[in-house]
Design goal:
The complex is a heterodimer of chains A (391) and B (420).
Chain A lengths: L1 H12 L1 H24 L10 E6 L4 H11 L3 E2 L6 H9 L5 E5 L3 H7 L7 E3 L4 H24 L9 H12 L4 E2 L1 H39 L2 H9 L4 H31 L7 H27 L6 H16 L10 H6 L4 H14 L7 H32 L2
Parallel strand pairs in A: 1-2, 1-3
Antiparallel strand pairs in A: 3-4
Chain B lengths: L1 H14 L1 H22 L5 H7 L2 E7 L2 H11 L3 E3 L17 E5 L2 H9 L5 E5 L4 E5 L4 H32 L3 H6 L4 H20 L18 H15 L2 H9 L7 H8 L4 H29 L8 H25 L4 H18 L7 H8 L1 H6 L1 H14 L4 H32 L1
Parallel strand pairs in B: 1-3, 1-4, 2-3
Antiparallel strand pairs in B: 4-5
Helix pairs in contact in B: 1-12, 2-9, 2-12, 6-8, 9-13, 9-14, 9-17, 10-12, 10-13, 10-14, 12-13, 13-17, 13-18, 17-18
The chains are: A mainly alpha (391), B mainly alpha (420).
């Protein structure tokens, strides 16, 4: 196991870089994991930073304010244009609503003439969400306005507020059978696809680099001259590369389980996803080794990790949901193992537990295994060719 | 002598194929992939209408099923006839296709993947089963159904309230006999009031439904961060600049240190050509982004100044890392690649909600994140009519540049004394 140990020694020698990359990637996964877990599986801006300035201070306006702030993060701002603009540009504020002094009075006369000042600078989608929210809310109150001939009696307002709260409470039921575990296994399936990016980057930056150091002609020749058989050397190198990747993967999987819950280890579909992700790990390690033989420049391994990691992640739907991805690009990305593993995670996210097609998941795992076999085979061919050329 | 060094530094940099590949071709490839991958984000509504959500509606009560079908008709159409994505629907407003059917047929449709969900019309509405329903589509379906539910609940509550108001004097009402005609009259009046909802709809934003100059699409927000990342990408060039003039880092560094030229002069001779080349690279990429049809704004001069300062800050941050730390070049290069990645992540290049999360929990990080500063600067140029805030971003970048330059010079001087 001389070569195996040497490989680990090289990683140990460059542990500074390895630790740095692993810590950065764990930090990224932790931030994403924390947000996803907080929002039940969505990494969208479910929680927006909202400021509501209430100039009327009535029961009606207070309830409107409470409704707008519900499930969002409240930001306190004075009614000062410059301060508000600064908050928007600091990216600490997503949406602002200024309720005028004559809010109730104008609403009673003509709701469509309400001078409700709103502002959203960052993202049109956030603005649209809040515009719908505001319109829905005012439309409900408008029914009460109509009922009371444009003049809601003051004593009726507390009762109406209670009814509006009931109306606005989400009531659509989602199939009861999957309710119990939805938050857990769906969060897990999302996060497990996110670690693929990390695996690719770390694969090239740590394994690729160390492998290329080992393949340095001076080191390689020294070992071969000392009588170490090439076949045994190759096997140990590959074993060492896979072992190190496995340890990194275990670390990342632990982080994912911390955020998604360890009960996932008892859910069948989560277990299958773990196996799928492990198969992906094997395929990516094989890909890293293959690319390192094609382009054996050790100083470029970090660049390669960066390029390949970002490109694969953007094209396979790790960073952006596949609903918005360019279809042709998505099809092209199917030449990478990551596409198939992300497909498995996406399939789990898009289906109820009893609708999950395990055959589909196994088929995708088989594709990844075949890819791994092809990469390993090609790597052996390249090694054989290089050996014949005396490199 | 200095001119001679400058000339050769230019040549050396261009002859190095790896430099060309990673520093020039990678940004092009990255921008192209980024553009192609996110192209559909520019108009997500059109994307939805290409592939609408297909649902089967089953009922416990025919009236409920008809009501929900009528409501969903505002966002789509009846019929789930097979239509390939390439054929597309005729209208851009068809977000949903539905079919009223019985339980057995609905289950069969779901099993055949002809529909993506079975919705049971009842009180309340229930998504009974779903299959192959992506997260985006499921949240859209949920929104439609919640809207329907709120209208239904409003109708019920207003109806109840109306009846309460009408028969507030329950004792006298109990004594009276309500004729069928009176009852029908009450119900008719209730329905009229409920119908008034559709006639008197409140829409405060009807004039603002189109994007204004102050609004930005998610694609553009991603692109601000991506462009900022590309501008800050040449951090590694700064690191390699220092490696080539520091004796204990590379063979070239050792050779250069042995020459009778001051380290500061040698530094500028190697730094200036690389800085110029990367500034030109950044401008070429900005031009390419414009050619792709992504308009980052019309303040071209200010954008160029911002990007060039971003690239300058990147190269100087690299030289500062190279001058300050004595560990091996490989680790420094690793840092120079990881740092823009972290800054890019924090600026929303991978998830566009990230800057707000950072602003909420670690606001100081946004202040010192060069990619965030460039990205914010681009955003301000796009949406702010004044240059006051943009100028603040320029000042922030100049401060970073100043600090990094001082650190680099300080680091170089320290190394000089060490070599004595």
């Amino acid at each position: 196991m001389k070569v195996f140990k040497l490989f680990l020694q090289i990683i140990n020698k460059h542990k500074g870089m390895a630790i740095m990359y692993i810590m950065i990637m764990i930090l990224i996964i932790s931030i994403v994991g924390n947000q996803v877990a907080a929002h039940n599986g969505d990494f969208t801006m479910n929680e927006a930073a909202v400021a509501v300035i209430d100039h009327e201070q009535s029961e009606f306006s207070a309830h409107f304010k409470k409704y707008l702030l519900q499930d969002n993060h409240q930001v306190e701002v004075p009614d000062d244009r410059d301060v508000i603009a600064d908050k928007f540009y600091d990216e600490s504020l997503d949406y602002l609503v200024i309720i005028p002094r004559d809010f109730s009075e104008t609403f009673a006369k003509d709701p469509n003439s309400l001078d409700l000042q709103t502002n959203s600078m960052l993202n049109r989608q956030v603005a649209m969400t809040f515009e719908n929210k505001i319109n829905n809310y005012l439309n409900i109150w408008n029914q009460y306005r109509i009922l009371y001939d444009n003049n809601i009696p003051a004593d009726k307002i507390p009762g109406i507020i209670s009814e509006v709260d009931q109306i606005m409470t989400p009531s659509v039921k989602v199939a009861s059978q999957e309710k119990q575990q939805s938050e857990s296994y769906k969060i897990f399936s999302y996060l497990v696809s996110q670690i693929n990016y990390v695996i690719i980057v770390l694969g090239f930056s740590i394994i690729g680099y160390s492998f290329l150091v080992m393949e340095d002609p001076l080191i390689k020749k020294r070992e071969l001259v000392s009588g170490y058989p090439e076949g045994k050397r190759t096997k140990e190198l590959f074993l060492a590369a896979f072992s190190v990747m496995f340890v990194i993967w275990l670390l990342l999987m632990t982080v994912v389980l911390i955020f998604s819950g360890f009960e996932n280890l008892t859910i069948n579909v989560s277990r299958i996803l773990i196996v799928s992700n492990f198969v992906h790990l094997i395929a990516i390690t094989a890909l890293v080794l293959f690319v390192c033989h094609l382009y054996p420049k050790k100083d470029s391994s970090s660049f390669l990790g960066n390029v390949v990691g970002l490109s694969i992640s953007f094209t396979t739907g790790i960073f952006i949901t596949r609903d918005f991805l360019n279809e042709i690009l998505l099809k092209i990305s199917s030449i990478t193992p990551t596409y198939w593993d992300v497909s498995n995670a996406a399939h789990v996210q898009a289906n109820m537990l009893n609708q999950i097609d395990y055959g589909y998941i196994l088929q995708n795992m088989l594709v990844m295994l075949m890819m791994a076999a092809v990469f390993i085979l090609l790597t052996f061919v390249l090694r054989r060719m290089k050996l014949k050329e005396g490199i | 002598m200095f001119r001679h060094l400058l000339k050769y530094s230019f040549k050396i940099y261009f002859y190095n194929k790896a430099n060309m590949m990673w520093n020039f071709i990678f940004p092009f490839v990255f921008i192209s992939v980024f553009f192609l991958a996110l192209g559909n984000l520019s108009n997500p509504t059109v994307e939805f209408s290409k592939d609408p959500i297909k649902i089967a509606i089953i009922d416990t009560d025919q009236q409920e099923a008809d009501n929900i079908a009528e409501f969903l008709g505002n966002f789509g159409e009846e019929g789930i006839a097979e239509q390939t994505k390439s054929e597309e629907t005729s209208s851009d407003d068809v977000f949903i296709k539905y079919q009223l059917t019985d339980v057995e047929n609905a289950e069969q449709l779901l099993a055949d993947q002809a529909v993506q969900a079975i919705v049971k019309a009842g009180n309340p509405v229930e998504i009974q089963a779903y299959n192959n329903l992506s997260k985006v589509k499921s949240s859209l379906l949920d929104q439609f159904l919640e809207s329907y539910e709120s209208i239904r609940k409003t109708t019920t509550m207003i109806g109840d309230r109306y009846a309460d108001e009408k028969f507030s004097d329950l004792e006298s009402f109990a004594g009276s006999q309500l004729s069928e005609q009176e009852f029908n009259e009450i119900m008719k009046q209730t329905k009229m009031d409920i119908l008034a909802k559709h006639e008197e709809t409140v829409d405060l934003f009807s004039d603002e439904s189109e994007s204004t100059e102050f609004s930005t699409s998610p694609l553009l927000i991603y692109f601000f961060a991506c462009m900022a990342y590309i501008a800050f990408y040449p951090l590694n060039t700064g690191v390699s600049t220092l490696a080539e003039i520091t004796a204990n880092q590379t063979g070239v560094g050792l050779r250069n240190s042995a020459t009778p030229i001051s380290k500061t002069k040698m530094f500028f001779a190697v730094f200036i050509p690389r800085w110029i080349i990367h500034c030109i690279f950044t401008l070429v990429i900005y031009l390419y982004v414009n050619l792709l049809g992504v308009n980052l704004g019309n303040n071209y001069l200010q954008i160029i100044v911002l990007l060039l300062l971003g690239t300058t800050s990147a190269v100087l941050t690299g030289t500062a890392i190279g001058a300050l730390f004595n560990f091996n070049t490989g680790l420094k290069i690793g840092i120079s690649i990881a740092l823009p990645l972290v800054f890019g992540f924090a600026s929303g290049m991978m998830y566009n909600g990230m800057p707000r999360i950072i602003a909420q929990y670690i606001p100081w990080f946004n202040e010192m994140n060069p990619i965030g500063i460039i990205s914010k600067g681009l955003y301000m140029l796009y949406s702010d009519t004044t240059f006051t805030r943009f100028n603040q971003q320029i000042v922030s970048l100049l401060i970073i540049i100043g600090i990094m330059l001082i650190v680099t010079i300080f680091g170089l001087r320290r190394n000089s004394y060490e070599s004595i």
